[in-house]
Amino acid sequence: MRIVLWMVSGLVSDGEKWKLVLDFLKRTADLVFLTETHCGPDTVEKLIYQLQSSGYSSIWTTYKNINGENSRGVAVLSLKRDIALETHAVDPEGRWLDFSVQEANFKLRSLLLYAPCSGIESRRLFYEEIALKTQSLALEDQYDIIAGDFNNVLRPEDSYGFKGPGTHCAALLEDIIDGSSLVDAWLLNNWAGNSEEARISRPSTFYTYKSIKKHVHQYRRLDRMYISKNLMWNVKNMQVLPCPTRGEEKKLEWDHFPVACLLDPSSSSLPKGPGYRRMNPALLERPDLVRDVKIILETSQRLQLRWHEFKDVLMEFIFKYQEENKRVDRVDVAWREFLLVRDSEGVTDEILQFYEQKWMKTLEKDAEMKKA
Questions:
Q1: DSSP state of 86
Q2: What is the mean pLDDT of the chain?
Q3: Listing from the earlier edge strand, what are the strands of the sheet with 216-220?
Q4: Which of 142, 147, 171 has the alpha carbon at shortest distance from 230?
Q5: Rounded to the nearest 10 degrees, what angle do helices 287-303 and 307-342 cross at?
Q6: Measured distance CA(332)–CA(340) in Å, rounded
Q7: 3-class SS of residue 250
Q8: Whole-number pLDDT of residue 269
Q9: How far apart are alpha carbons 30 and 212 in whole angstroms?
Q10: Looking at the DSSP assignment, which residues form a beta bridge with residue 146?
Q11: Which residue in 93, 256, 308, 314 is deepest, having the highest Cβ count within 10 Å?
């Protein structure tokens, strides 16, 4: 199974671009993850019909910005007849898609996302939402793949030519990846290409994003694919592909390169795991929890508990605290999203009402869970 991940910077600027993209993908992929499609509902309906006519299946998300323009959007395309797609959840804001892919007995629970490209607060709220989503999954439903345009990097080596490292909200993303027991598929297969010499001499084979600012070339590895540790040995190849062109006279430029991952579905079943509970490090910023942890530490010292005994008591308390406050976290994230949109310029009443309803639904769900 060959998976191609690509941030396409809009598909419908003209019909020729979509034709070029689809022809390229037919040659290089069985399964396609697309981000920033900029497709509206009418366009998506036409594309789905066109793909179905060729025997392909697809799932799309759509979103209109405050100016009424189509923006964001992610999509998954199956270009192989025996690869089935199943939708679990679709983000109404067009930033993520929760789905499963199945070929014979090889089934992958996947999350495709497109993180905000500007605004640290918006990005932080987005990753908090994703963190809550991953934490709420049962062990057998954990993600096998989380992929997309993350619009940040976790390592300084993944950025070249920029003033800053681009590691905004890295701690939140690391918690999501580690808590879901995932690894960076590209690094698994490209240790030699990870050297500084290789990155500088052949940047288009390492980085997935490029730009030129004041005649300075800038690169970042924004488009990544994280896979379950149980799938490590199934990854046979991972590489950055060159973008297709229309020819010398009509060269079509993208600022993101496609990323291809070759998975060997020889394993008939994928064990989920490991079976452990995940802790959200952001909890340690809460004054009430810090106070209680200090009390536990002082009590343990007074009782002369051994290290493993203290650790068991502390972690049991933190996980219980986390479960009790998970509902409050969801309400808090929805409320802060509403405030952020409300205080932004040029927001329409329709958009504001959408975020207000999202917050109210979260409150209602919280009340139902408390009652239960």
A1: E
A2: 82
A3: 159-160, 216-220, 209-213
A4: 142
A5: 180
A6: 12
A7: coil
A8: 47
A9: 32
A10: 111, 226
A11: 256
Whole-number Cα distances in Å, 238 to 31, 193, 362? 14, 11, 39
The mean pLDDT value for 195-221 works out to 81
What confidence tens digit (pLDDT) does each residue in 340-369 have? 777 777 677 777 788 888 888 878 877 776
Counts for the chain of helices (H) and strands (E), in that order? 9, 15
In one letter, which amino acid is 24?
F
Q: Note the Cα 204 to chain centre separation in Å.
A: 22
β-strands 83-90, 74-78: how paired? unpaired
Query: Tokens representing 138?
Result: 């049962």
Tens-place pLDDT, residues 111-154: 999 999 888 888 889 998 998 888 888 777 889 999 999 999 98
202: tokens are 């052949």
User: What would the pLDDT profile of 41-70 be if each residue is shown by its tens digit?
Assistant: 888 888 899 899 988 999 999 887 767 778
Residue 285 CA to residue 337 CA, distance in Å, equals 20
Residue % of the chain over a pLDDT of 90: 26
Q: Is the dihedral of CA 53, 54, 55, 58 positive or negative?
A: negative
Q: What is the pTM of this model?
A: 0.74
Question: 25 near 70, Cβ under 8 Å?
Answer: no
CA distances from 27 to 2, 3, 39, 131, 354 (A): 11, 12, 23, 35, 40
Q: Is the pLDDT score of 274 beyond 50?
A: no
Show the beta-strand stretches assigned E in the chain: 2-7, 31-35, 57-60, 74-78, 83-90, 96-103, 106-114, 145-149, 159-160, 182-184, 209-213, 216-220, 223-228, 235-240, 259-263
- What's the pLDDT at 278? 58
Sheet with 259-263, strands from edge to edge, namely 57-60, 74-78, 31-35, 2-7, 259-263, 235-240
| DSSP SS3 for 196 | helix
